[in-house]
């Protein structure tokens, strides 16, 4: 790793950000993870937060609300370069890809307000199942809602017979890293982001 870092630096690149890829063994953690899901479901009922997957919602309204949510939350993640705004066409392309399933796209609602979501990308034939995105409205953080939608994704993967799932997070994303530690994710490898000035 140090050899590669030296080579990048010598080529004029700067190390600007680090991340971590992590793996969760669903088979060995099955009972514990399903019990966690039941606990977070109960907490959401107490708070009046409804958990639903995308196939349970009117499609046009779901797309409209999800586009707005992505654009409300994407900038909250630690980042170096701003993400372009999500459009309805862009979301529609993503949600009709072979690796995406509406009934595996978990959302949390306070009335008609989308306040958190989490989903997994499932490979068509082979490869790892990865977290696609997990986020919570900043006004609703600290209430276990992001944990709840992530628990739904994890529990569903277990019930589908998926043996393990992976995720990656920025090293500065303390809240999500804490959720992943609670779930039992273990580090697999580091991710380094390098940038070089143009010109």
Radius of gyration: 18 Å
Determine the number of helices (DSSP H or I, runs of at least 4 residues). 6
Helix residue percentage: 25-40%
Number of domains: 1
Can you identify the CATH superfamily? Answer: Gcn5-related N-acetyltransferase (GNAT)
Biggest sheet, open or closed, and with what strands and sense? 7 strands, mixed
Order of helices and strands: HEHEHHEEEHEHE
Low-pLDDT runs of 5+ residues are none
Distance between the termini: 27 Å
Strand line-up in the sheet with most strands: 2-3-4-5-6-1-7
> Using DSSP, what is the number of strands?
7
Q: Write down the overall geometry.
A: globular
| Oligomeric form | single chain
CATH architecture classification name: 3-Layer(aba) Sandwich
Overall mean pLDDT stands at: 85
Which structural class should the secondary elements be placed in?
Answer: alpha+beta
3D architecture notes:
This protein is α+β, with helices and mostly antiparallel strands and 199 residues long. It has a single domain (19-190), classed as Aminopeptidase (3-Layer(aba) Sandwich). It is 38% helix and 28% strand. The protein is built from six helices and seven strands. It has helices at 2-10, 30-47, 59-73, 88-95, 145-159, 174-183; strands spanning 14-25, 50-53, 105-110, 113-121, 129-136, 164-170, 186-195. It has a seven-stranded mixed beta sheet with strand order 2-3-4-5-6-1-7. It is globular and about 55 Å long. It starts with a helix and ends with a strand. The mean pLDDT is 85.
């Amino acid at each position: 790793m140090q050899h590669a870092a030296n080579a990048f630096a010598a080529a004029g690149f700067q190390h600007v950000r680090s991340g971590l890829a992590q793996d969760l063994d669903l088979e060995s953690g099955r009972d514990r993870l399903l019990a966690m899901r039941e606990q977070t479901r109960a907490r959401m009922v107490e708070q009046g937060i409804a958990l639903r997957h995308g196939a349970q919602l009117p499609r046009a309204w779901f797309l409209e609300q999800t586009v707005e949510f992505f654009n409300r939350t994407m900038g909250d993640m630690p980042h170096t370069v701003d993400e372009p705004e999500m459009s309805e066409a862009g979301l529609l392309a993503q949600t009709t890809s072979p690796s995406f399933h509406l009934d595996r796209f978990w959302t949390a609602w306070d009335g008609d307000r989308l306040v958190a979501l989490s989903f997994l990308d499932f490979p068509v034939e082979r490869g790892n199942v990865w977290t696609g995105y997990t986020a919570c409205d900043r006004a609703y953080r600290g209430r276990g809602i992001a944990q709840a939608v992530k628990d739904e994704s994890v529990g569903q993967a277990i019930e589908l017979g998926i043996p393990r799932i992976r995720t990656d997070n920025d090293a500065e994303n303390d809240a999500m890293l804490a959720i992943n530690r609670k779930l039992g994710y273990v580090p697999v490898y580091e991710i380094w982001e390098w940038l070089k000035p143009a010109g």
